[in-house]
């Protein structure tokens, strides 16, 4: 959860629920899907319930997860797009996603005012190529958009444009085989054709156990 006191985190705040998304309007992010918090788990909830998305920077799973959903080495320094890709790959491979009822520990995402660089700044600085990360992300995000099912990033269009690097070993790091991509998009109310994210009522209400 977000917090402003950078001292000792005491825990016990209501569990955050990732239940909403939006298509980015940032030109660098190429209309990729961004994941957002949709609400908090009621403190009286008897048990954790399912949510729509994984928080890529802070989640827990059995070690089998790494076998079923191995990290994709062809999306280096991925930031925007990582969560929708990870969520879809996990869910289609049969994994359900849950939110905790309470936050007992926290992931501290330090803001820029603390003077700490973000990785997208370090990539260009360390390589002495200021725009390297932006160029890399154009391929990374396209790989994810193809995986998700954007009509602008079909395999045919990618072949026509000669951007074949984004298809490298996609059969190993793509969707799972237990449930379909189309079922996930329907469940989460994501319309990739019209680039709209609809309200996910079951997630906000904690209806799936």
How would you characterize the overall build of this protein?
There is one protein chain. A hairpin with a 4-residue loop joins strand 9 (190-191) and strand 10 (196-197). The protein is globular. The protein has helices at 64-68, 82-92, 119-127, 132-148, 155-160, 181-188, 201-205, and strands at residues 13-14, 16-17, 20-23, 33-36, 39-40, 49-50, 98-99, 102-103, 190-191, 196-197. The mean pLDDT is 87. The strands form 5 sheets. A two-stranded antiparallel ribbon has the order 1-8. The chain is 29% helix and 11% strand. The chain has 209 residues and is an alpha+beta fold.
* Share in β-strands: 5-15%
Number of helices: 7
The rounded distance between the terminal residues' Cα atoms is: 22 Å
Assign a percent range to the helix content: 25-40%
How are the strands of the biggest sheet laid out side by side? 1-8
Outline: globular
Q: Point out poorly predicted stretches.
A: none
Average pLDDT figure: 87
Give Rg in angstroms.
18 Å
Order of helices and strands: EEEEEEHHEEHHHHEEH
Q: Could you give the count of β-strands?
A: 10
Structural class: alpha+beta
The major pleated sheet works out as: 2 strands, antiparallel
Map the helices and strands.
Elements: E1 13-14, E2 16-17, E3 20-23, E4 33-36, E5 39-40, E6 49-50, H1 64-68, H2 82-92, E7 98-99, E8 102-103, H3 119-127, H4 132-148, H5 155-160, H6 181-188, E9 190-191, E10 196-197, H7 201-205
Features:
7 helices, two-stranded antiparallel sheet, 209 residues
Short description:
The chain is an alpha+beta fold. It has helices spanning 64-68, 82-92, 119-127, 132-148, 155-160, 181-188, 201-205; strands at residues 13-14, 16-17, 20-23, 33-36, 39-40, 49-50, 98-99, 102-103, 190-191, 196-197.
